[in-house]
Amino acid sequence: MTKSEALFERAVKRIPGGVNSPVRAYGAIGEAPRFIDRADGCYIYDVDGNQYIDYIDSWGPMILGHNFPEIRESVVKACEKGLSFGCATEIEVEMAEFICERIPHVDMIRMVNSGTEAVMSAIRAARGYTGKNKIIKFMGCYHGHSDAMLVSAGSGVMTSGVPDSAGVPKGCTEDTMLAVYNDLDSVKMLMEQAKGQVAAVIVEPVGANMGVVPPKNGFLEGLRLLCDENDALLIFDEVITGFRLAFGGAAEYFGVKPDLVTYGKIIGAGMPVGAYGGRLDIMEMVAPVGKVYQAGTLSGNPIAMAAGLTQLKYLYAHPEIYTSLEKKGSRLYGGMEEILKENGLHYHLNHISSLGSLFFTEEEVVDYASAKTADTKAFAEYFKAMLNAGIHMAPSQFEAMFLSMAHTDEVIDETLEAIRKYFR
Ligand code: KE4
Question: Distance, CA 59 to ligand 1 centroid (Å)?
Fold first, then answer.
């Protein structure tokens, strides 16, 4: 028995499914998950000493690679002054100013502790500001596990086959309406159906929780228009895309301006940080200045801010990172497309910048329904073969691959070699 297997045996006795987040349980794979001991650069090392090239990157935060020296040092330094005060601190002001002064559509921002909390709060602010209740989300998009969002969600919900979730009273989801990703008509129909009642449309500007599904040309622009025409707010959930596609996220990348935006992952550099922000007139609705209540003991925690701000400052000071990530993406995903072609395989591969997903289906994957045609058993075999070859990918067909600055050309070519061997 490996140490990972032994740990998993213990874990399942005391933690639901042996994990603190479902997708880590390898549920779709059918074997014990690898327990990770440490990580450095593009590598992670499990408790049995096996090394893997990591394409999970903690689900996105580690855009500079694991154990990035400046970030580690900023955390150690901050720890020497104490871990948490539950009071206002200077670094929270610095973090808010740094983001608001560099992202035009963010006039004001509030730190929270996760992407879930960011989305939950942004939706409450949207409802509080508009005085309306209906929220339109897209099938297959995942916005964290707050009750109103656990309707046809992606990510772990899609992976575990939990259609929605037990424990969510109907009342919590009756104002959540479901549209089809990349289908503006489905949004138009809902807007007509709930005329004057829609507070906001929330969207992953690049779907990444049904696997990677980029927006079709005009989709995001169309959402902007529909929201304006129907007096609804547009919320970009940039928990994955924020600071990854560009410093200004998908909003900058596609040139579409949301009214509110949510962040997570990269903003915390691996520490528990989420944030929501946007138009001043909306954010001024938030307590204590406004009537929309939201709070958090560890929100803006100084250690988490030290990590996150160090990462954001580094990304902003090195804009060439974004072209480099584009190049890394082209090398990896372009290489994968070549391998499929060499082997006469017509699996569908979606990718944009450093994000990508190989779908085990011949259908073009543009939304939840087409993503669901993927053969999850074939994916599981592929995942296991890659794992045994020392390549650590997300243990689910409905997740993304994440590239970081630590993935060199050599490492990408090594990955392609392993993939070539598998499909040969
Ligand atoms: P967290 O509460 O997990 O920090 O963020 C929720 C969330 C919100 N919005 C988007 C677009 C997200 O992708 C996420 C979380 N992403 C998943 C990975 N697909 C987190 C991994 C997990 O659940 O363990």
Answer: 8
